[in-house]
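Collaborator request, handled under Task 6.
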Amino acid sequence: FAWNRVSVPISQGVIADSGFYVSFSTADSNVWLLGESAIPISGQSYEIIDGVWAQHRNNRVLDPWIRVIVDISNAFIPGAIKGIPELDAFEVYPNPAQDQVQLKLEFSRPMPVSIKLLDIQGRKHRLDTFPYLQSFEQTLDLSHLPPGVYFLQVLTPQGQKSKKIILR
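Structure tokens returned to the collaborator:
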């Protein structure tokens, strides 16, 4: 048995606990919406029967041949952000910016850190990963990016934090 992989880009930020659904239809009158238990995925499957929403059944028990896995590692998730207690400083300036921003990070202890730059649609434009980082200051060149809203995301094993950047 083989799984079919379908990649769907997230066009907007995913709001945690709002439910993310994958749908398919078997006929003109029935549409099933399926989910899985990890945030922000619903733990139940639902269906629309004659235009009415109905909780159908627990998909772990009765839908063993349907599997939905959503990779949100590159997505900005506004409602699910857990702060980083060890993050003492997270500065991005100037903001709004034109061609570059200055990024300054200070942690209370060395730790693994990833820094992502995402656009408003969740597309990754930069990723820097450090096995152990305590202090970081760098000028980020943004001259290759079109004007718009971006998010600078700092991720550690303890959580993540993001700042919005407006690029003119």
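The cover message to the collaborator said: "The mean pLDDT is 69. Helices lie at 59-62. Please let us know whether this matches your experimental observations."
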